[in-house]
Amino acid sequence: MKKINYKDLEYKYQLLSDLMDQVPDVIYFKDKKGRLIMVNQAHARGLGLKPEEVVGKTDFDIFPKERAAKMAKDDLYVMQTGKPIIDKIERATRADGVDNYVTTTKIPRYDKKGRVIGLVGITRDITHRMQLGRLREEKERVEKKLATLKELNQMKSEFVSVVSHELRTPLAIIKEALMLIFDEVTGPINTQQKEVLNKAKDNIWRLNNIINELLDLSRIETGRFKLQYFLVNLNGLLRDCSDYFQKLAEEKRISLDYSLPRNEVKLFIDSGRISQVFTNLINNAIKFTEQGGKIKVEVKVLENRVRVGVIDTGVGIAKRDLPRLFNKFVQVSKVPGAEKKGVGLGLAIVKEIVRKHGGEVWVESKLGVGSKFYFTLPRLYSVELLNQQVQERINDLLAKGLSIYLINLPIVNFSEFKKRVGIEPKRLFADLNSIINGAFKESSRLHQEQPQITLQDYRNGECSILFPEAKEEEVNRVDSLLQDRIRGYFRQNKVEDVFMVPKTEHPAANIRIKKIYIGSEIRRFKRIYYQADIDIFLPENKTEPGQIVDISQGGVCFISKRLLETDAQVGIKLELPADNRPLYIKGRVAWIKNIEQMSKREINKYKVGLEFIELENKNKKALAKFINSRAV
Amino acid sequence: MDRKKISKKGDDLEALKKELVSAISHIVRTPLSIVKEGLSLMLDEIPGQLNPKQRKIIRVAKENIDRLTQSIEKILQTPWGDKENIRDLLLKQKKRGVQ
Q1: Across the A/B interface, how many CB contacts are shorter than 8 Å?
Q2: CA-CA distance, A547 to A597, in Å (whole number)?
Q3: Are B13 and A148 a contacting pair at CB < 8 A?
Q4: Does the pLDDT value for residue A29 go beyond 80?
Q5: What is the reported pTM?
Q6: Residues A351-385 pLDDT 10s
Q7: A144 at B interface, C-beta within 8 A
Q8: Which of A194, A396, A467, B39 sits in a 20 to 30 Å window from B90, CA-based?
Q9: What is the pLDDT averaged over residues A453-482?
């Protein structure tokens, strides 16, 4: 008989018991009747017991009957066949009621004679691994879907573009043919024939509109939607199409009024596209207003933008429809006959046109009361200052299809600046002219076919340089040369703290404007960033909190959770750091921007531009003091 | 890529696609058929007689409308998941000389 080495045995036992106790897997030994004869720490811990408390129990004492029966079946299989079960993945419920995934391996145990006396089992919690796998699958699925969506979207654009292009040419031919007959070029026709032709003409026109909308959509979706800027008087643009709308409104006995500012509103816009916006909004207003209703088209010149409103007393839009009104293929109206006329793209295109111009579009509406559609367009002071000659020149070049760069050198508050610098205006401008010529010579622009045009107005302190067909880097070179030299010029003449602010506008269009402001102030109102909480006093004695973004002596821009009404008069309570008592100021809501929500859970927020009205003297002083103290 | 398999997964997408096509075909077909009606009436001289010049012009217009209607029907019936299909179709039409 072999001698037992107790030391070696103890050591081996220690190793085994370390494995049993430290391993996170559940390990158990069962006898032939399914009783647990030994379990490790992990097994007992999972049940909230100690290992010795588990010994002697069966699965039926521990687990729900259904599950225990399943386990007993597996046990029986292993012990009867002598075949192990390896890595069987199952859903399980832990003792604490949490659902998880486990993998189990069961191996039969034999006595020395080779008879099965029980089994050893190892069970591992693989919930994490399964979740990870599930996540990966989910990710793959979403990615696949995204790819499909993208592909589909492109196909859709292609499809729409194909259909529209295909229809356009034959349609134009048919239109021409009908006009020839209708205008009696080919011989007289009677009234009945005219009537038939008229109806056909209307429908051709309708088709044309549909196709144009579809084409616009495919342009927008493929990024080929580009603007062609012209220098336009907005009032004139509205007046040009007013006869047409007047007639349309009269047919429905609707009164259509225009409220336009007396002065011309000169803007750099794509006149065709903005006309399209007018047409869309006014047509909609007429379509959704009943007999005897009223429509008002108003243009308001604001601080640095122009606001156009189309206000009707029509059927209105339900509150739930408002958020998706500017989406594609949306038609919310239940007005009979109205739903068939379009594709539901009009407002989506309006939104895109306004957005491309750098403006905002928003709507306020009440069922049965009417709707108010507003949009804004950015306004440039310098454009209004340009004289007729320059304006004509610009449009001339644009009409020839040339793209234009415009460098504007406006001297802000020229009358004061004149006094301060002590240089005679004529000399100042002669000097500026030679600086400009020098800068162009150095950038070798003068040898080219289209030389620059310099226009100066030394009474108003305005200097503009036009150069057609310039390359971006060329313009940048001239621009930085000009800035350096003008700065140097003032330094030479001992004029200190002249600041110059370069600014580029309308990128990616046929006109680009670079402005170099010269002077001590850039705007009519100095605007400073100031973050503070305010109270907004709404009509009907309601108060709403808000956060200021920036402030000037002319107005304030703040964020509000409530959608305010355009042109509504509200009061604000505002605290300035230097003052002990808050200021109470009255203002008018000039424009609204819906800040797009990142997730659905977030509440809507609106950026609101408020213009001060009837600003009291003491408030004016306090604001001026604060703004000047903050300004750099 | 197995397109059929994917579009089965995105049933809502398929539905959307169908909806778009049927919306477009509906809004395009209605005015087209009205124009066609009108031109047929004119050619049949129901509202009044035509001189040879007028007749010729209206016939050309009518032919164009007929071809247009046909080509739209074709495009709308073509499974537009397949770009090549549409391109082929267009090429054929150009050769046929739809003007």
Answers
A1: 124
A2: 17
A3: yes
A4: yes
A5: 0.62
A6: 999 988 888 899 998 888 999 999 999 876 556 65
A7: yes
A8: B39
A9: 76
Does residue A156 sit at the B interface (CB-CB below 8 Å)? yes
Is the complex ipTM higher than 0.90? Answer: no
DSSP code for A49? S
Question: Among all chains, which residue has been given the structure tokens 């591992």?
Answer: A124
- Regions in chain B scoring below 50 on pLDDT: 1-10, 93, 96-99
Q: Which residues of A351-369 are buried (b: 16+ CB within 10 A; e: fewer)?
A: bbbbebbebbbbbbbeeee
**Residue B58 distance to chain A (closest CA, Å):** 7
Higher-confidence residue: B79 or A436? A436
CB contact under 8 A, B58 and A181: yes
Closest by CA to A550, choosing from A564, A523, A532, A570, is: A532
Chain A residue at shortest CA distance from B29:
A207
Instruction: Copy the structure tokens of residue B58.
Output: 């209206």
Q: What is the pLDDT of residues A170-210, one digit of tens each?
A: 888 888 888 888 888 888 889 888 888 888 888 888 888 88
State the amino acid at position A30 in one-letter form.
Answer: K
Mutate to test the interface with A, among B35, B51, B98 (most CBs of A within 10 A): B35
Interface probe, candidates A164, A186, A209, A340, chain B, greatest B C-beta count within 10 A:
A186
User: Which residues of chain B have a Cβ shorter than 8 Å from any chain A Cβ?
Assistant: 6-7, 9-10, 13, 17, 20-21, 23-24, 27-28, 30-32, 34-35, 38-39, 41-42, 47-48, 51, 53-54, 57-58, 60-61, 64-65, 67-68, 71-72, 75, 80-81, 83, 86, 90, 93, 98-99
In chain B, what's the furthest Cα-to-Cα distance?
Answer: 60
